[in-house]
Design a protein that fits this description.
Number of strands: 19
Largest sheet: 7 strands, mixed
Helix content: 40-55%
CATH class of the largest domain: Alpha Beta
Oligomer: single chain
Shape: elongated
Distance between the termini: 37 Å
CATH architecture of the largest domain: 2-Layer Sandwich
Structural class: alpha/beta
Amino acid sequence: MLLPTPIILIIHQPRQAADYASILEKTGAKVHAVTSFEEANELLSFIHPDLILLAAQMPEGDGRLYCQQIRATVVQPRPVLVLLHASSDVNERISAFRYGADDVLGDPIDKNELAIRVLAHLRRRQEEMSNPLSQLPGPNLIRRMLEQCMVSDKPWSAMSIDLNKIRVYNETYGDLAGDQLIKALGAVLTDVADDDDFVGHIEADDFFMIVKPDNPERKAEKICQQFDSISRRFYPKGDIERGYLISTGRGGIRRRIPLISIAIGIVSSTKRRYQSYVDVLTSARDYRYLSKQYSGSTWVTDSMPEPLQHEDMEEELGNSSSHEKQSRILVVEPDGPMALLLQDSLTLEGYLVQVTSSADDALELARHEHPDLILLESNLSDRQMDGWSLCRTLKDDDDLKSIWLVMATSHPDQSLALEAGADLYLPKPFDMPSLINEISALLRSSLKMRG
């Protein structure tokens, strides 16, 4: 798997700087050699070295003081500071550590020892900059890799990847189980990646890949297929057979949550010129966000229409109230006072509300009026059809199954409501503001994620 090229800065007198640079270039690192602290400061304004190798004594001053300066002024992640000291005096070397050096080596030093020691420091730095859960490169290495890609003349594609519904999974099975699922995703990405691809782990379930631009969609599809084939191992048999999780919210509100899946957003350097690594990350995440509007594991690429930015999406949702006010709600409630209360409360919110106490009448109204949402009680007086049967009938009808179904009932077994096809279960007695908030959230949704 590809990793960013390490960057080394050497500060020494001309001959030694050239000798050490020729040794360290053979390690595969990109090496910059300068002969003064002033030149080093100029370089540090636009490069971010992983390691600085500097002489303890320079014509312009003490290398130990420069170590102190680097520690005080360079933002994290700070480079490893390796001081080359000609003195074998122990106290002199201890003093160098006190000034801030991470290692002190002899000067001159055997070329093989120098190369091995530098590689050991770079390896340790890479480990420290990796995600502790997956051991994949973390945010700083992702940034370095993207910056190197952006200055390269080779085209590339970037993929932003995360899990849908991981929060609910963690709430249901615990954070340790969620961590195992995240590690499994990291293993899938590593397995799918070619030798010249890069895989990084930003945080939690947020992963990032850089791949060749010839066919990133094929790679994304392979990731989705592999993850879907193993993800079922992370559920109890009962949840697999049911096909969804039950999420419990405040006030006993329960909803069906689909089994976990992957969302992937893909961008390519061949489609536009990116100004910064943040620009790449943000754009890829926007397409990933767009892919979440579809059910199951899926991907969206920048060859498709431009997605809304997060701010635009939030603004659209915020401005959707005018559309909500025209939404039609059918209340199926046998209790007269409760039916009247629901009708008045929902009408005050601006919804168009119809009320019935009969399952048969509700089915006819659903077929002719096609409401956006039906709020129903399970315990209806109809002899042939109760609330459970009505719920199943609506969900089995291709023309009616897109209607949101909210089961508000005093029946103690909440799983019956969800198994019958309800999108939401609210136990009676319920808090009216909570009910209205839940209804509003459902009607704002542009996609009904079905179990």
